[in-house]
Amino acid sequence: MRIVVLTGAGISAESGLKTFRDGGGLWESYAIEEVATPEAFHANPELVLNFYNERRKQLFDKGIKPNAAHFALAELQKQYPWQVTLITQNVDNLHERAGATKVIHMHGELLKMRCEQCGNVSLQEKDISLEDQCTKCLQRKCLRPHIVWFGETPLALADIQVSLHSCDVFLSIGTSGSVYPAALLVKMAKDLSNAYTVEINTNPTENGHFFDKHLQGSASELVPKFIEQLIQDKFYE
Ligand code: NAD
Ligand code: ZN
């Protein structure tokens, strides 16, 4: 069986990381245009770097831990002889911390930075400052979070497309279906592979009509349950 999983901010909500659009979400305190576009970064790099420095720091807070949904997906990837492609829109590291073996971060990662001059991508656990020097090209004022901002092209689209060409089950978890092209992956799984498509979300989503099955509820409860059914081959019920 070939399974493609797409996760969004909702899978990390129960781990203590706020989603973008839910009540109390990050975007109530910040306007998207202020912190998540290349234009914002060039207009006010310090504000944008600080926003992501805060997000990065938060990953090290004691209370922030992977939940049962992250663990169930990691087990699925490790324990069964299936091809499991785990794609996330999340920039946190909770899939990895749960033990996932390979994660495609299509919107980038908080724990990486990139040089705008030479393109070098490196691991980054600390704050990024304008004065920091790129370790490769030695320039300054050129380091940015390795995050895909609005208006930029997501990462690893070729690998994602390959996985959707051979997909039996497409599972979407905790994503509102309002960010493109991520919201279209379900349609591609249908068009390219006639995949069986399932979504798990606490609320209705904007691309809900593309799914064969809707499981309404929290990821930490429903993801382990669904995976258990998948293993027993009862997921069509
Ligand atoms: P979103 O905020 O647009 O949607 C979150 C979705 O999760 C909603 O549909 C909501 O109903 C659902 N949800 C909330 N709690 C849930 C739970 N406990 N169980 C199941 N579903 C739940 O997020 P998105 O669709 O991922 O897209 C927005 C962008 O947000 C992405 O590009 C991503 O990079 C970014 N983001 C990432 C993080 C993170 O890395 N943890 C956090 C916030 C935003
Ligand atoms: Zn450089």
SSE arrangement:
Blueprint lengths: L1 E6 L1 H5 L18 H4 L2 H6 L1 H14 L9 H12 L3 E6 L5 H4 L5 E3 L2 E8 L5 E3 L19 E5 L9 H9 L3 E5 L11 H9 L2 E6 L11 E4 L2 H13 L6
Parallel strand pairs: 1-2, 1-7, 2-3, 7-8, 8-9
Antiparallel strand pairs: 4-5, 4-6
Helix pairs in contact: 5-9
The structure holds nicotinamide-adenine-dinucleotide and zinc ion.
Would you mind describing this structure in some detail?
The chain is of the alpha/beta class and 237 residues long. It folds into two domains: 3-15 and 65-107 and 154-231, Rossmann fold (3-Layer(aba) Sandwich); 18-58 and 109-147, SIR2/SIRT2 'Small Domain' (2-Layer Sandwich), CATH 3.30.1600.10. Helix content is 32%, strand content 19%. It has a six-stranded parallel β-sheet with strand order 3-2-1-7-8-9, with helices on both faces. Helix 6 links the parallel strand 2 (83-88) and strand 3 (103-105). Helix 5 packs parallel to helix 9 (219-231). The radius of gyration is 18 Å and the shape is globular. Nicotinamide-adenine-dinucleotide binds at residues 8-10, 12-14, 17, 19-22, 25-26, 89-92, 107, 174-176, 178-179, 200-203, 205, 218-219.
